Amino acid sequence: MKIFIMAAETRRLEDTLEYQNNGQFRKATTNMILAASAVSALPLNEKVKSSLGLVVGSSYGEIKPTNDFLLTLADSGLARPFLFQSSLNNATSGFLTMHFGICGPSLTVSRGYFTGENALEAGVLLLQSGQADCAVVLGVESFVPEFDDVLKKIYPNGTSVVGGCTGLLIANDEGLKLFDRHPIAKLKDVKIITDGRKKFDRATYHDSDGLEMLAKDLFTGEDSNLLQLIKPDGTYSEISWTK
Amino acid sequence: MISITGMGCVTCVGTGPDVLFQQALNENSGIIDGLGKMDIQTPGDESRAIHFSMMSINQAMAQAGWTELRPDDGLIVATTTGLIDIWENPLIEFLQTNISSEEFAPFLKIQPLHSLTKKVAEHLEFKGRDMLITTACTAATQAIAMGSHWLRQGLVKRCLVGGVDLLSKLTVNGFRSLQLLNPNPATPFDVNRNGINLAEGAGFLCLESDVSRPLAHILGSGTSSDAFHMTGPEPEGQGCFRAMSAALRDAGLNTDQIDWIHAHGTGSRQNDSAEGAAIGKLFPQVAKRRPWVSSTKNIHGHTLGASGAIEAILCVKALENKTILKTSGLKISDVDVRHPDKHFSFDLKTVLKNTLGFGGNNASLILGAP
In sequence order, what are the residues at sequence separation of 6 or more whose Cβ sits closer than 8 angstroms to the Cβ of residue A138? Predict the structure, then answer.
């Protein structure tokens, strides 16, 4: 079965000011805002939505509501229901299904450095197994300022990322018929290689950034590509595609 | 054909699938003061989530005759809170500025949920394909479904799937804040129900294709999203209806080929009502043959991300013993489904297992006798 990449959108926190100032999103978490901003730019027509799955990849999940819930509980003994529901690791997925009316399969995955690639693998499987003909695949992470020093100790070579999200829209042969546009690329393979090591010269502590790197490379104009992402521990992934 | 060849679990009613099934038969609830806690000591400073997972995995692999997890096998773990017993208190201490960034760093490092899978993989010396699914209460059902898809697509030779969840400050106080907790053993589907019982537990299953002596088959699975509310199911159960319908299509079965529905049946008004409506719509009174419907959460409680695996294990034991279990605690039902009023022997061929989760997730699994 062929898998097509129909669109790719990347958002950083600074790109989402209109959402942060929108009353409709006042209770949304940072991950929800980042993800909603990316998904809203994907070409989701009603035909596509009728056979659409969703995979959200996030390594750290919903940090801020988790912190706020536990700190409020410890300081005042008060358990705040809204913070609890937002602290769940699949809260962003739930929010997106409601906001965009996605009724197909949805799941949230977490796989450390390979979270973005793992989400893409899961999205491809949704299409290959016939559970959906199109899928939104997201990698999203956001941190809080109080963790800056801690993260520098965990990832000494890391580049600070306050928040980021990349969303891909993929389709199988049936799904392709639901679009009035050509695909950007045909996905060939996604491989996660944890039993080998390669030297790395850059690192980031944005664990879901695999999709962001892919989105950048998709628009560089190369006809055939292999993206090799080397992780801070030397393990790596390979994503290949043709235009 | 995807089959289950080994199973293992630890729950608040004891260790192992046989004990779990016997406790359900005897209607011995493990719920004390509204919660299902496990009184099991862990060695050293190991996470209880890892310990309970490995206990379950060792049982499952021994039954399946697996001596190791090979590089071409797969591992899928489901959870909502991962290693929370290790990081929750240090996180609070750090946020209250009682410990430094340096002291907190090792705990933040293991906060990502995948740390659980990584630790399990380290115990098993496994470096093959793995995945961590965190889709609230449907997580383990999705893990079983994902494992069977991996096998069908030929991505792995065999697959170890399951889930684990612990009681924590976050979950117990969170559910309490939603006014969902019952101080007594839950009474799912009962008109006088009074909420749910949170519990801890772990359950793992070994999946293989085309084996000669399976415990049960995974005939099909289906998942859906409500797109309705973060913590409450769509009241008419449309999402649950779609998940069950998708599972039937995947299995190639008709509604009259389902013998028993092991319901999510938490004992919350919203869940029971939505799930009951979905079952009533898919299996209406006018149908030639309506399946029996039960929940066993009165016995083992609601183990959140692990519930789909633990309850699937109970379904396989029911298939093996050709017994349909009743819903303990149920006196007068307020949903339009067919409840058994006692456990009884039945030539059980198929069980449909439902799970519904926060975030509007629904997942259904159809298990078949070998």
Answer: A35, A38, A39, A54, A55, A56, A57, A92, A96, A119, A165, A166, A167, A168, A208, A211
**In this predicted complex, what is the ipTM?**
0.96
Residue A203 has pLDDT above 60, yes or no: no
End-to-end CA distance of chain B: 10
- Between strands B344-345 and B323-324, the pairing is antiparallel
**Can you tell me the distance from the alpha carbon of B122 to that of B83, in angstroms, rounded to the nearest whole number?**
15
Are B127 and A95 within 8 A, CB to CB? no
Query: How many helices (H) and strands (E) in chain A?
Result: 10, 8
In three-state form (DSSP H/G/I as H, E/B as E, the rest C), the secondary structure along B159-218 is EEEEEEECCCHHHHHHHHHCCCECCCCCCCCECCCCCECEECEEEEEEEEECCCCCCEEE
* pLDDT value, residue A57: 97
- Write down the pLDDT at residue A207: 64
Contact B285, B201 (CB under 8 A): no
Given an 8 Å threshold on Cβ–Cβ distance, is A109 in contact with B133? yes
In B, which residues are within 8 Å of A79 by CB distance?
A: 173-174, 176-177
Q: Which of B159, B302, B315, B343 is catalytic?
A: B302
Question: Residue B8's beta-bridge partner residues?
Answer: B204
As a whole number, the mean pLDDT across chain B is 97
- Cα nearest neighbour of B246 on chain A: A131
Q: Are B226 and B24 in contact, with CB atoms under 8 Å apart? A: no
Sign of CA dihedral B282, B345, B9, B369: negative
Report the distance separating Cα B45 and Cα B175, nearest Å.
27
Find all residues with CB under 8 Å of A36, minimum gap 6, and list them. Answer: A19, A25, A28, A95, A96, A99, A100
Q: Indicate yes or no: pTM above 0.90.
A: yes
